[in-house]
Amino acid sequence: MTFQTSTQPAAAPLQALLAEAQHIPPAALHEARAAIARLAQMAGLDVLAPVEPALLPPKTIETEIGGLPVWKARRLQAHIDANLDAVICNTELARLTNLSVSYFGRAFRKTFGQSAHAYVMGRRVALAQNLIGQAEQSLADIALTCGFADQAHMTRVFGKLTGVTPHRWRRMRGQVLQ
Predict the structure, then answer these.
(1) Which residue in 4, 18, 41, 101 could disulfide with 94, CB within 3.0 to 4.6 Å?
(2) pLDDT digits (tens, 9 = 90+) for 43-72
(3) C-alpha 171, offset from chain centre
(4) What whole-number distance in Å separates Cα of residue 53 and Cα of residue 67?
(5) Would you put residue 135 in left (φ > 0), alpha (ψ -120 to 50) or beta?
(6) Over the stretch 110-121, which tens digit does the pLDDT of each residue have?
(7) pLDDT of residue 55
(8) Rounded (10°) CA dihedral 113, 145, 174, 55
(9) Are 150 and 143 in contact (CB under 8 A)?
């Protein structure tokens, strides 16, 4: 995260606190970064944040008791990334790992630190951020490409995970579609 101070002199201590907070590894890093970005905006700081929750490299996959084996976790990651434009349900993912749906849900959460649905939505937002950064498509087209039902659905999920709307995210990076 990069912070640019506005004309407020009292922003320096807050900026230092925010810079320090980004190095604390919380359980849900994407939620913490979104909260930091909102806090910075409330304090009058311009935030240029890589608010890509799922663009962050997935945590190192390690086998824990009750979690997925590494090879199954990698297989799931590859399948999810290859099928982001389609409907991905837990029954399909559980079938890939040869587990019951209920056990799969617990094992996925133990391995990835979030539910399968949250992980898929995070990957979709990451793909949307990448496509928005290219500034070649409309937001409605990007939403459909990423597997969202429509632009409104993408805007809700994108805003929840990043703290800003897709349009604002594009404008913050100086990209405007002509």
Answers:
(1) 101
(2) 666 554 444 444 444 455 555 677 899 999
(3) 19
(4) 21
(5) left
(6) 999 999 999 999
(7) 46
(8) 20
(9) yes
Structure tokens at 64: 């824990």
Tokens describing residue 4:
């640019």
d(CA 113, CA 107): 10
Write the CA distances from 101 to 22, 98, 171, integer angstroms. 35, 9, 41
**CB under 8 Å to 163, separation ≥6 — which residues?**
34, 35, 37, 38, 41, 51
Residue (of 178, 79, 85) closest to 135 by Cα position: 178
Tokens describing residue 15: 């900026």
Q: Which residue is associated with the tokens 């390690």? A: 62
For residue 26, pLDDT beyond 60 = no
Residue with tokens 């199954």: 72
Enter the tokens of residue 75. 């297989």
- State the DSSP H helix or E strand holding residue 124, giving kind and residue range, or none if neither: helix 116-134
